[in-house]
Amino acid sequence: MTNRGAAGVDQDIEKQWVALPAGIRTQVDGFVLQDRLMQAIKLVWEAGRVQGVGLREAQVMVHLRYLHFGDRVARTPDDPIDLDSLATLAHGIRGRVVAIEAVWDGDTVHGWFVNLLAITDEPVGQKGLATIYWSAAERALDGADTGGLHHPSAAAATRAGTALAEHLGVPFHFASPDTPDDDAPRWRP
After folding, report:
1. DSSP labels, 42-101
2. Which DSSP string do the residues of 129-170 spell out, in sequence order?
3. pLDDT in tens, 56-101
4. Would you list the domain boundaries of the chain?
5. Cα(63)–Cα(109) distance, rounded to whole angstroms?
6. Taking a C-beta distance cutoff of 8 angstroms, is the pair 182, 103 a contact?
7. Which residue in 13, 89, 139, 141 has the fewest CB atoms around it within 10 Å?
8. pLDDT tens profile 45-58
């Protein structure tokens, strides 16, 4: 891509989109309408390589298709993080819940996000309760105070995890709420 500004880049992307075979464009649009972002990007990237479409161009192209379809995209629903839903999920876990833990994770699609986990013993393990992405966290917080945390996912996870842990009478652990760190120390009894 050249550095000619957004309008020029959008025109280049549009030309690359139109140059893709109709069948590929139809399949990409199908993936977008089903909110299957990674499959759409992969298809554009693989099909467009011969005409010089790189990964970044494929991402922008698919993003523009999402914008094109807007509300018609069947978005993947957010995991619920209200106390009633989390408590119901926690009570349905096999084994005794001994802690609630928030841990960072990340990927190229969502950036950093937080997984809210129930830690169990007998059997020893963990069960995912919710994945809290930035956009879902902003919706859940709805303008509420983040408690000084900069990442909305950390604030929403701390709020939901603390409430659930208090409800269950177990500790809440979040080793690195201020800084995304997927290598932060995990909870130990």
Report:
1. HHHHHHHGGGT--HHHHHHHHHHHHHHHGGGS-PPPPPP-SHHHHHHHHHTSSSEEEEEE
2. EEEE-HHHHHHHHTT---TT-SSHHHHHHHHHHHHHHHHHT-
3. 999 999 999 999 999 999 988 899 999 999 999 999 998 899 999 9
4. 6-72, 83-173
5. 11
6. yes
7. 139
8. 999 998 899 999 99
